[in-house]
Amino acid sequence: MHKGNLIIISGPSGAGKGTLVERLVARVPDVWVSVSATTRAPRPGEVDGEDYVFLSADEFERRVQAGEFLEWASVHGNRYGTLRSTVEEKIAEGRQVILEIDPQGAAQVKALMPDAVLIFILAPSMEELERRIRGRGAETDEQVAVRLATAVRELELVGTYDYVVENDDVLRATDELAEILGSLGG
User: Fold this and answer.
1) CA proximity to 51, closest of 36, 39, 72
2) pLDDT above 90 covers what percent of the chain?
3) Angle at alpha carbon of residue 99, lines to 10 and 96, rounded to 5°
4) CA 70 to CA 153: how far, in whole Å?
């Protein structure tokens, strides 16, 4: 059996990471997407254990102290993290493990797992990014402003990534991601 790879997909809120990952899962058979733990409240339609593992702030902190996270970060007032044991297990099974995490977390994982492949997803413009965030209808004007300010800081990290994919067209961007995964072997 071949060894799997760890692929980190990150980029600003609204870049379309979730859509691209969803399409990649449907297209590449050995892909497994890690489910992050978070302290934020579920959005309408989100399911515990499928979309995120929803934890109380106290439980999240207990797991941080126990060293159970491969990475964790505070983002937009909430905490997010990736449970180490599950990721390592899936890689050992030969799966292409995808972490859809913010650049802060990507840097933490790369430091612990240098073989991880980092892919940054870009929106075509800041205007398009704002349109996408507002289009979700889940954030207040203040939250949108915070996400856009965060995006500006995250864009400064593009040069630290192995690949950059512009999500200007979902089909083309999915093709590009599938090619990257195909080039990794196992």
Assistant:
1) 36
2) 60
3) 125
4) 23
Q: Tell me which residue has tokens 């909430």.
A: 78
Report residue 64's pLDDT band, with 50, 70 and 90 as the boundaries: very high
Q: What does DSSP say about strands 78-83 and 37-38: parallel, antiparallel, or unpaired?
A: antiparallel
Cβ atoms of residues 160 and 107 within 8 Å: yes
Q: Where are the alpha helices (DSSP H) in the chain?
A: 17-27, 57-65, 84-92, 103-112, 126-136, 141-155, 170-184
Q: 119 falls in which pLDDT band (50, 70, 90)? A: very high
Domains of the chain plus CATH, in order, are 5-184 (3.40.50.300)
Q: What is the reported pTM?
A: 0.83
Measured distance CA(42)–CA(155) in Å, rounded: 27
Instruction: Reduce the secondary structure of 85-134 to three states and give it as a string.
Output: HHHHHHHHCCCEEEEECCHHHHHHHHHHCCCCEEEEEECCCHHHHHHHHH
Asked if residue 93 has pLDDT above 70, the reply is yes
